[in-house]
Structure formats: structure tokens, C-alpha cells
TrEMBL record:
Organism field: Gracilariopsis chorda
Alphabetized InterPro entries for the sequence: Papain-like_cys_pep_sf, Peptidase_C19, Peptidase_C19_UCH, USP
CDD domains per the UniProt record, alphabetical: Peptidase_C19
Phylogenetic lineage: Eukaryota, Rhodophyta, Florideophyceae, Rhodymeniophycidae, Gracilariales
Chain ranges of the USP domain: 10-318
Protein's recorded name: ubiquitinyl hydrolase 1
């Protein structure tokens, strides 16, 4: 199962709204139109529901090709989410839907090392691996102008823990988390993921800003969004001497006063020079806007919405010390090796078939069995070529 190659240069169109589906549209756009980091979830996640993957592949391919999915296409996708997703047909929390979708597609986990410091007796559990799929960031009540960078720093820095059980006693402790720059194919509970079978060449970190209180009311605290964040302080010893950065790919904004109402729109970055705004109530071509010197949109309205209504952000984690051409060379090497294996397998199968014919009939059949396109198909050249995701069909593990 393959999808169209992600290309920021294609002119794109909004998805249709088929009845309170803005949370779904915005999530799909952020996962598959802001980055190609999650493509492996659609192509090599065999234990995910096949009808869901097929519906997603179709919709994503249509949008990536610059076309508009039909309402029946979206309804088929909504139907494929049943029965696990019980909220179809009404507005709901995009973060909850994202969590459900990543779980259904068996997305890999973001691993972190948790370390507890306390005055009690040392315990084997004082250092342990934990995993998440979404990092939840809290807005400090006394911070009128928070930043994503400072909120991430708070997330990973020392946190006070009361009532930690150690040696049969309750102790106060300090918790520190350190990000590990590799996907985890297995959770600490033993749950496995698609990373068992697919090379996720970029780690994407979904970040959720806690914009709703316990009653579901919206907090419109201004949060400054950084397009690029130095991630070495979150990786600490795991960073070594490398230049790790988190680069913003997409943002989901919530327009409205509560979690159960309002409207979701998505922003994606098309390289370093352009932003796109997706709105499934608008229809037609996706709105476009140039980037300013700080990487954010030049339009004041867009900047204001990102600052006050950003809810979910998607960051690619990458090592900036590796030149881009080296990364692409590595991926191309793996793709070429995979393609060579596929061609060799076909040749072996055809050779065995020829031998069977020779043994059975005494007639040797040469060539391509009357199919002039056989060799072209083996090399991925027919039908417009083969995408990189066709080649990565699950045999590589990062």
C-alpha cells in the first residue's frame, strides 16, 4: 500500500466538511500534509485496521495530488473509524482524536528517561524508561506571555512529586525527564508498534498546549511559537556533540470558547518560505502566506491566531549537524538496496517458473513472458514511477 510522495510545491485544496469533521480534517492535514514523517503508519502498519488505512491512504493521496476529496470519501473515512471512535457526528477534541488515531495506526512512542531524586532509600525504579505519543504542556497561571520553548523546558526540568512510594514509605521527590532521540518500537508495557517494520527517518513530536480548564472552557493565554527550538537541553547526555533541533511542521488552532464547540483550522509550513492555512468550511484552494524573518507568517491575523489559539503543534526532531545531502544519500542507499532486492526476487521467481516449464514441456521460455512492461515495472518506472514509500515496505528498523 503506497501513497503519493509528499511535495510542498503542489497547489493544494481544502478537505470538505461532512458534518462536524473539522477536528478530523485538521488532524489529517497536520499529520500528512505538514510532514511525511508519519507516512509509514499508512504503508506498513499491518495490524492497524485495513479499512481505516485504505480510507486514509485514499484521502491523503487525493489531497497530495492537489485534488479535493469527495464527501463520500470523507464519509467512508468517518465510517472506518467506527466502532472505536464513538464521537462521530459531533464536534470533539482534536487532541483526543489524534491520540486515538495514533493508537489505531500503532504509531511508535517517544521515549524518555525519568529520574527520581529523593531522601529515601535508593530504589531500582528511581530511573525508568517511559513513553508518550503526545507531550502535554501546561500554561503557567501567572504567565501572561508563555513560550513553547519555556513550556518544554518546564516539562523536562525538575518537577516536584509528593507521595512517591519508596521502601514502603511515602517520600517527596524531584522528577527530571530526558528525551531520547529515537522512536521506541515497544512500550514499557510490552505494546509493540509499526516501528518494528518501518524506517521512520524523522522523529515527529506532537505537542499539546493545555488550553482548556477542567470545565472545558478555553484559555486564550498568549503563547509565542518558535519555528525552530534547540533541543539539546531536552536530550542532555543523549545529544552528544550533535546539533539537535525541533522544527515546526504544522499547527492546529481551535476557534471558540469551549472544547465541545467552535471550529478547528490547521496551519502547515511549505518549506521555510511559505505557510498554508487549511479550513474545511472555506472550500477551494488552501490559503497561502509568506514567512517573515522569524519564520512565522507575515499576516498579522495569522500570527494572532497562532499565538492565542494554537492547540496542537507538530515538530520534526532532527540532527542539524548532519548535512541534508548526507541524510538523503543514506535514504537513497536504503531505497536502492530495497529496490535491488525486489528486482532480484522477481528474477528468481521468473527463473524458477522457466525451469518448471522446461521440466514439464521441454520448451524453454525466455524474455519477459510477453509483457514488454515487465522490466519497467520491476524498476518502478511504469505508471509514473515509484514513490520512496513503495520501497520502504517494512524491512528496515531504525
Amino acid at each position: 500500500m503506497s501513497i503519493s510522495v509528499f511535495s510542498p510545491s503542489v497547489a493544494l485544496r481544502n478537505l470538505p466538511n461532512v458534518g462536524n469533521t473539522c477536528y478530523l480534517s485538521s488532524t489529517l492535514v497536520s499529520l500528512f500534509l505538514g510532514t511525511d514523517s508519519f507516512d509509514g503508519l499508512l504503508t506498513t502498519s499491518p495490524r492497524a485496521p485495513s479499512n481505516l488505512r485504505k480510507a486514509l491512504v485514499h484521502v491523503v493521496t487525493v489531497v497530495r495530488d492537489g485534488k479535493t476529496p469527495s464527501p463520500p470519501d470523507l464519509r467512508a473515512l468517518v465510517s472506518a473509524l467506527h466502532p472505536a471512535w464513538r464521537h462521530n457526528g459531533r464536534q470533539h477534541d482534536a487532541a483526543e482524536f489524534l491520540s486515538h488515531l495514533l493508537d489505531a495506526l500503532r504509531a511508535p512512542f517517544i521515549p524518555m528517561m525519568r529520574t527520581f531524586s529523593h531522601a529515601g532509600a535508593p530504589d531500582a525504579n528511581d530511573s525508568a524508561l517511559c513513553t508518550e505519543r503526545i507531550l502535554w504542556l501546561q500554561i503557567a497561571t501567572n504567565n501572561a506571555h508563555a513560550t513553547v520553548s519555556s513550556m518544554l523546558q518546564d516539562y523536562f526540568s525538575a518537577q516536584s512529586i509528593q507521595g512517591l512510594q519508596r521502601g514502603g514509605k511515602s517520600v517527596d521527590a524531584t522528577e527530571v525527564r530526558v528525551l531520547i532521540p529515537e522512536y521506541a518500537a515497544m512500550r514499557e508495557t510490552g505494546e509493540t508498534t509499526a516501528a518494528e517494520r518501518y524506517l521512520f527517518h524523522v522523529i515527529n513530536i506532537p505537542v499539546a498546549i493545555s488550553r482548556f480548564d477542567v470545565r472545558g472552557n478555553k484559555l486564550r493565554t498568549s503563547v509565542h511559537i518558535s519555528v525552530q527550538i534547540d533541543a539539546r537541553k531536552y536530550l542532555r547526555n543523549f545529544a552528544a556533540d550533535n546539533q539537535w533541533f525541533m522544527t515546526l511542521c504544522a499547527v492546529i488552532c481551535h476557534r471558540g470558547a469551549s472544547i465541545s464547540s467552535g471550529h478547528y483550522v490547521a496551519y502547515t509550513r511549505a518549506g521555510a518560505r511559505e505557510w498554508r492555512r487549511w479550513n474545511d468550511m472555506r472550500g477551494g484552494a488552501v490559503e497561502r502566506c509568506e514567512s517573515s524573518s522569524d519564520g512565522l507568517p507575515t499576516r498579522g491575523e495569522w500570527r494572532d491566531e497562532l499565538r492565542k489559539d494554537a492547540y496542537l503543534l507538530f515538530y520534526d526532531l532532527g540532527d542539524g549537524s548532519l548535512p541534508g545531502r548526507e541524510r538523503h544519500r543514506m535514504l537513497q542507499f536504503l531505497a536502492d538496496r530495497k529496490l535491488a532486492e525486489q528486482v532480484q526476487l522477481q528474477e528468481d521467481q521468473h527463473g524458477a517458473f522457466r525451469q518448471q516449464l522446461l521440466d514439464a514441456t521441454g520448451v524453454y521460455v525466455s524474455g519477459d513472458f510477453g509483457d514488454s512492461n515487465h522490466e519497467r515495472r520491476a524498476m518502478g518506472a511504469s505508471g509514473g514511477g515509484s514513490s520512496l514509500t513503495d520501497m520502504f515496505d517494512g524491512d528496515f528498523v531504525r
